[in-house]
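can u pls check wat happens w/ 6-deoxy-beta-L-fructofuranose
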Amino acid sequence: MFTPKTKQPSEMMTTPELIAQTNQSLLADHQHQLYHLQEILAKKQIDIEPVIQKLQAFQVSVPSWALGTGGTRFGRFPIGGEPRSIEEKIADTSLLHQLTGSNNAISLHIPWDTSLDYSAVRQFAHSRGIKFDAINSNTFQDHPQQVYSYKYGSLSHTKAEVRRQAIEHNCEVINIGQQLGSKALTTWLGDGANFPGQNNFRKAYERTAESLQEIYRYLPTHWQMLIEYKPYEPNFYSMVIPDWGTALLLAQQLGDQAQVLVDLGHHLPNTNIEQIIARLAGIGRLGGFHFNGSSYGDDDLTTGALKPYRLFLIFQELVNAMWSDAPTNASDIAWMIDASHNTKDPIEDLMQATEGILIEYAHALLIDQKMLEYMQEENEVVQAQEILQAAFRVDVRPLVAEARFRNKACIDPLTFFRAQRIRAALIEKRGVASRATGL
Ligand code: LRH
Ligand code: MN
């Protein structure tokens, strides 16, 4: 039986006093930059106060599978000090949240994050200020003691017994989520085909819809089902749920609790993702995000590291949707990171990703939506672009740092993490070969 221990060693290195002390040495310079920005924006009739408050309230959930170094099929390069258990993953999320003030929840993946006592795990997380966001099922790998293989699919499989097994797994994941206090199930299927002729597209879709209907019937009333789409991988000719249209069709067939989850890396090159967001937000079917950065495919790199302007345009569509009373509220959306780190310290990468997300949200909050709407209505193409780019070109980092400061977190979390040699301390505690479950 697991009993919640007192604070984990990793947390001992991040006492609020140490953070406040370090912030003190950075405060004068930070406030100088903030007041300077405040003056610049005041001249544009932009009040920074509501922007900072929105940034403070914005929380991005941590994927449990990204707290260790993820690999590719070509190799995996462990960094050491990786979390070896669900408790250590929660401890690292709590550590991250103490440094950023913007990561107060973790998204678990079953069976990568199984436990013998989920209510004790819930208590452990609660005592560290960490909640549980959407919980993920996994029918894209074969698990120990599993009877039927998912080699040829799961919810879309041609054999009823395999579909049954996958449905029961999803229901079991819902049971676990309920014990943890999650309010949503994320279902991403690796189901599809590698070769023409391998699958009957219509039957595969219909079997998937039927299977999801059975899981949907098991969903608690106040829960959401988040349907995640992906154009390819692990199948490379077709995926049963390849795009937002198919995910939306399934969600509409299932019912109001079914929503579409947008993983930024799950789009073919040059897809206008912000238009997909506008479409889904416009009809109240945008359930959540998996934030990451990519150039080619599902690269799962740091959010905002490659295409910050696209991330800005995505937040512009979200802010505009919420401004213009579209049936979408920030609180209804599951904001989650989904990344896999081959060459960065996972905690440093999650700090950079969180910063990248808050920066583009801040840029979108600077936009005068009424003025933009007017320019659009008047087909003032040049002026409309000027409004967007003027906001994007403001250095909003003092606003994001101020939100962290007010959340009692670090003005500069990355420098703090390095200066406190936290990775070295994690390696000392957990060993250089400790390995996290996940990708
Ligand atoms: C699929 C995916 C999905 C997760 C997995 C870890 O590519 O984005 O969200 O289940 O990564
Ligand atoms: Mn994802």
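Residues 16-42 form the longest helix (27 residues).
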